[in-house]
Amino acid sequence: MAEGSAGKRFTVSELRKYASLAKIKLQSSEEVRLASELGRILSYFEQIKEVDTEGVEPTYSVTGAVNRLREDRPGPCLSQDEATANAAEKERGYVKSPKAF
Amino acid sequence: MRTLSAVMDVKNGNATAAELAARAMETIERKEPLIRAFITVAERAVEAAEEVDRKIARGEDAGSLAGLPIAIKDNISVKGMRNTCGSRMLANYVPPYNATVVDKLLAQGAVICGKTTMDEFAMGSSTETCFFGPARNPWDVSRVPGGSSGGSAAAVASGEVPAALGSDTGGSARCPAAFTGTVGLKPTYGRVSRWGLVSYSHSLEQISPIAPDVLGVAALLGAIAGSDGRDATSAEVEVPSYVDEATAEPGRFRVGVVKEFFGEGTDERVANLVYGALEKVKEAGGSLEQVSIPCLRYALPTYYLIAMSECSSNLSRFDGLRYGFHLDAKPNEGWDELFSRTRAAGFGDEVKRRIILGTFALSAGYYDEWFVKAAKVRTLVIRDFLRAFKSFDILAGPTMPCLPWKVGELADPLSVYRMDVDTVAVNLAGLPAISLPAGLAGGLPAGLQLIGRHFEEPFLLRVSYAYEQITGFPKNVPVS
Question: Which value does ipTM take for this structure?
């Protein structure tokens, strides 16, 4: 991995790329500060690379539980009115979205 | 007031639930201008308590917590009560359903007094990232109460309510318990259903009780624990009577005093208080021996990488359309632009930092290097803990390396992260851990942290209760 891209620094253009993937439109006034903060945080995180993890399996969940299945039975659930009560824009009981096409 | 004294008062007819609720609401009204523990105060707490009283009058079983006034962290859904998560994003969001723990508390007769101040989406250790402003430490209102469940702990410490629920992802219940001289218990991962808890880092977090004393958290845990069909990670493990368990003798036990928890950066005053507290644990039947768990020095970056990665995924649901902060679309504006504007305006700085770094750590090209690497180190942390638990029944150290700081004192994000150094490893391993009052330094509380084996809350509570009997907390009362 190229030095400076992943590790020591987080450039403004990288910041823009990941902010855009995360759907957060940053103000240009906050970009320099954020990039430098994130760069310093990443440099600190870098120390985990010292750890020898050869042959170690990753842990994503501590319970060890695998797919817990149940029968697909209808039960009580929210009404359409309740489920859409918090939506700002509605039309005929549906949530209104911006133009998709 | 101790949690169970409130319950006993109602049970023995010394007070009605309505009187307790009215007293809590009056105390809240009086103390809130200073403490700011609540984002939302319940409007109908006394009416809800009257319903409990009617149940008792009819001779019905009103539940194990009948009449107990309780505060709920503002990321745990209470039907019809606004649930902000301390964020502008959810400032007006009203959940149409109860979290499982809330249903369970109500079934046991608890009375909800309001929703408490927290760091935005539980991301912080002081409540300072809360959109509505921080809560204050009842021992010194110029200082933070800890976080992220700082409002819950401050509400208990200031005597506004005798019990509260928080959540603990990397120390968020134990840190404010330590900072406010209260008791905070992070249960084993899977012990308590997370249904209705607004998700931040799903593999790490547990809803966690905060109370003035050990029996308080024991009673609350007994009420909220158990398997839940709505949370596939909740465990099918029997729920004992934690109050009965807590009062049983712990017998002789082995305590591993974790060397890494007293590392560089630990305030000497805190270390001294904790060493003093450990002497009391010894009196309670523990034999003390130092143990080194070398992997713990990597726990902090490992925790943050996992928490940030999971949060970037969990917080992707906030789009401002179905619920939450909403901006009107500009003419011809598409999904991407509208969402990106909404999320930029709805989230605060700390949330943005974590989402963006998490997105980076999960992105193609960096996934193995950062996220998977952290998940592998997590395996090693778990392994090291399990190895230590072969020689010890309890692991111990300070909850926080420092005393509560002044509001605004820690401006740099990394310096705040560093304060979580002693709490996060427990979440990586899914272990139960409790923070107990260790005494005061310069009038400010510090916490003793005890860690138990998976699902061994009963033993952890026994040791904690025995310790409490010797030290006699909660005798100290904060100044405000």
Answer: 0.94
Cα B425 to Cα B397: distance, rounded to the nearest angstrom: 12
Indicate yes or no: CB of B359 within 8 angstroms of CB of A21. yes
DSSP per-residue letters across B402-455: SPPPBTT---SHHHHHGGGTTTHHHHHHT--EEEEEEEEETTEEEEEEEE--TT
By three-state DSSP, how is residue B291 classified?
A: strand
Residue B374 clears pLDDT 50, i.e. is over it: yes
Please say if the pLDDT value at position B180 is more than 60. yes
CATH of domain B3-248+432-471: 3.90.1300.10
- Assigned domain for A101 exists: no
Residues in chain B: 480
> What is the residue range of A2's domain?
1-51
Q: Using alpha carbons, list the distances in angstroms from residue B62 to B65, B217, B242.
A: 8, 20, 19
Could you tell me if residue A68 is inside a domain? no
Q: Do A87 and B232 touch (CB under 8 A)?
A: no
Cα separation of B201 and B87, whole Å?
A: 16
Instruction: Residue B199: count other Cβ atoms within 10 Å of its Cβ.
Output: 17
| Cα-based angle B108, B109, B110 (whole degrees, multiple of 5) | 100
pLDDT of residue B479: 61
> Tokens 């039975």 appear where?
A73
Q: How many CB atoms lie within 10 A of CB B387?
A: 12
Token digits of residue B245 = 């368990």
Q: Give the residue extent of every domain in chain B.
A: 3-248+432-471
Sorted by sequence, the CB contacts under 8 Å of residue B385 that are 6+ apart come out as: B293, B395, B425, B429, B431, B451
Q: Is 90 exceeded by the pLDDT of residue B138?
A: yes
Domain assignment present for A64: no
Q: How far apart are CA B319 and CA B264, in angstroms?
A: 42
B372 vs A48: CB contact, 8 Å cut-off?
no
Nearest of B92, B71, B79 to residue B164 by alpha carbon: B71
Residue A78 within any structural domain of the chain: no
The answer to whether residue B82 neighbours chain A at the CB level (below 8 Å) is no
Number of domains in chain A: 1
Task: Please give the backbone phi and psi of residue B257, each rounded to the nearest 5 degrees, phi first.
Answer: -85, 110
Q: What pLDDT sits at residue B368?
A: 96
Nearest chain A residue to B306, by CA: A60
Q: What is the DSSP letter of B169?
A: S
Q: Which helix (DSSP H) or strand (DSSP E) does residue B151 occupy?
A: helix B150-157
